[in-house]
Amino acid sequence: MKPGTLPFRADAPIVPELSAGAVVVYEPSGEFLLIHLADEDRWCLPKGHVDPGESLAQAARREIVEETGIDSVDLREEIGEIAYRFYRPREGSNVLKTAIYFLAYTPTRSVRLEPIFDRHAWLAPEEALSTVTYETDRTVVARARDRVRSPRSPGRPSGPARP
Q1: pTM here?
Q2: 19, 47 in Cβ contact below 8 A?
């Protein structure tokens, strides 16, 4: 369960949700992009739901564009899957969320945030690791840091991305 979320309720239905997101890396410097969700005062990675008929990679790319305005992005590989659960009171349901993350590279630092975000930061991998709010996101940032440090094949994916 993520901090600030409500625990499961035994009397509520369980609803699975699938999301896709990315650790966005500024290619020249290797800095990672974090975005700040104002209402919840949390630093996070671009991520959101997968639309019906959309692949995980398509959803991750769309979420990057929607949340950051960055449309020049190269999704190179899937780097992690996280899962967590929480209670959503307005719908009266327990949510089992699975999020798939990709490593994405961009040649631009220009960001145009979606209105729910109030600021962004390009940070060195270690600083991003200590800044991101949730432990589950830290796991993904750590994996990205390790991949950027020692890629299996410089600049290319280690295997196929999920459809």
Answers
A1: 0.85
A2: yes
Q: How far apart are CA 161 and CA 1, in angstroms?
A: 27
Residue range 54-82: mean pLDDT, rounded: 97
Helix (DSSP H) and strand (DSSP E) numbers for the chain = 3, 7
Does 89 score more than 50 pLDDT?
yes
Q: Are 87 and 4 in contact (CB under 8 A)?
A: no
Q: What are phi and psi of 37, to 5 degrees?
A: -85, 110
CATH class of 14-149: alpha beta
Place of tokens 């008929």: 53
For residues 137-157, average pLDDT: 76
The residues spanned by each domain of the chain are: 14-149
- How far apart (Å, rounded) are the C-alpha atoms in residues 76 and 144? 11
Give me the sign of the Cα torsion angle 158, 126, 116, 86. Answer: positive
CA–CA separation, 140 and 100 (whole Å): 10
